[in-house]
Specification:
single chain, 41% helix, Rossmann fold, 355 residues, alpha/beta, five-stranded parallel β-sheet, 20% strand, 2 domains
């Protein structure tokens, strides 16, 4: 439980000043992300945000140890065990996929090592333990927001296509429940297994239900691109909406993506976007801002003198920090609140959309 708040407002100058640390024994922080596999583009984007924060912080007594967990529960558990038992990290940033984060959480919890996910949104993570945090809002919030967006567009017959894993199941349950509660109808709800790139059978069932809107949930670019292409091939005439996991240029440029509207968390403030462009020559990818803020939170704790998992945990529960993605203010479950924006796919890229 929080006893008080520490409020920190950070510009570029104050950030560098705050994190100027002297030499000392290394504090090891793990980074556990999907750097290969179908979610690699998301993991690499988050890693760039983390690396940028690390470079700007100038913490000479901090070492990053990176593990490729591949968005898979088994890999995440193995990575967690290595980071905790072999490397001796006091905190870790990761994973991106909810199932992988949930699988790894018990290892961090029992080892009293802080885990901050920059992208895992399943509501189940709120119950994962006292050392488990995230710098992205829960789908308990995004599902409610998305249901309202669809309903306020005058659409009443909803179909949902989602992956059969913690992220997809959690998001779809909240979305469908809220849509029904505000007066809409859920006429079809179809799942697919992670890694699947053929969802024609599910889409055929959805077409038979005659929805006026289809909400696609995915954290796999390959699956999302395949679904959009097959929606077009099957002649499914519906309004298309989607989750934040669809926000990438690869998906925006896919056949059938034109006009797709997605809800998404912040991509970062203007200053962060410019610094990211200066460093990498490109705009931030999905979850780069959340990765940056995850490291920013840990760096603030370390600068305060925290050096163990328990000390960092206690500091984070008191933290109120103006991050690049918004205010980072962890509640008793390690969750943050957050706002969402809408984007529409136009001409092969996502642009801000105001409904």
């Amino acid at each position: 439980m929080k006893l008080k708040h520490i409020f920190i407002t950070l510009g570029v100058v104050s950030l560098l000043s705050l994190f100027s640390c002297g030499n000392g024994a290394n504090i090891k922080i793990g980074v556990m992300l999907p750097l290969t596999g179908d979610a690699a583009s998301y993991g690499l984007g988050a890693q760039k945000g983390i690396d940028l924060a690390f470079e700007e912080a100038g913490l000479e007594n901090v070492e990053l140890i990176v593990e490729d967990s591949g968005c898979e529960g088994k890999n995440a558990r193995s990575a967690a065990e290595k980071l905790v038992s072999v490397d001796g990290v006091v905190a870790t940033i990761g994973e991106l996929c909810s199932s992988a984060t949930i699988a790894a959480a018990p290892t961090f919890e029992s080892g009293e090592v802080v885990l901050i996910s920059p992208a895992s949104t399943s509501p189940k993570i709120s119950e994962s333990g006292d050392f488990i945090f995230r710098s992205i809002p829960s789908d308990a919030l995004q599902g409610v927001f998305a249901a309202g967006v669809v309903y306020n567009a005058g659409l009443r017959n909803l179909a949902v296509l989602y992956p059969n894993e913690d992220y997809g199941v959690g998001f779809s349950e909240v979305l469908e429940g809220e849509f029904k509660s505000i007066g809409g109808n859920v006429v079809a709800s179809e799942s697919f297994e992670r890694g699947t790139t053929d969802v024609r059978a599910q889409l055929t069932k959805i077409r038979s239900a005659k929805p006026d809107v289809l909400f696609v949930i995915s954290n796999s670019p390959d699956a999302a691109v395949a679904a959009l292409r097959q929606i077009k091939e099957l002649g499914l005439k519906v309004k298309l909406y989607g989750s934040e996991g669809l926000k990438s240029d690869e998906i925006a440029a896919a056949p059938g993506a034109e006009g797709l509207i997605i809800s998404s968390v912040s991509v970062g403030n203007d200053d962060f976007i410019q610094r990211h462009r200066d460093r990498y020559g490109e705009a931030p990818g999905p979850f780069a801002a959340q990765g940056y803020d995850a490291f920013l939170s840990l760096a603030a704790a370390i600068k305060s003198g925290a050096s163990t998992g328990a000390e960092i945990r206690d500091y984070l529960y008191m933290l109120n920090l103006e991050g690049v993605s918004g205010v980072i203010d962890f509640d008793e479950n390690g969750d943050i609140s957050g706002n969402y924006d809408l984007y529409r796919s136009e001409g092969g890229s996502f642009v801000p959309f105001f409904q």
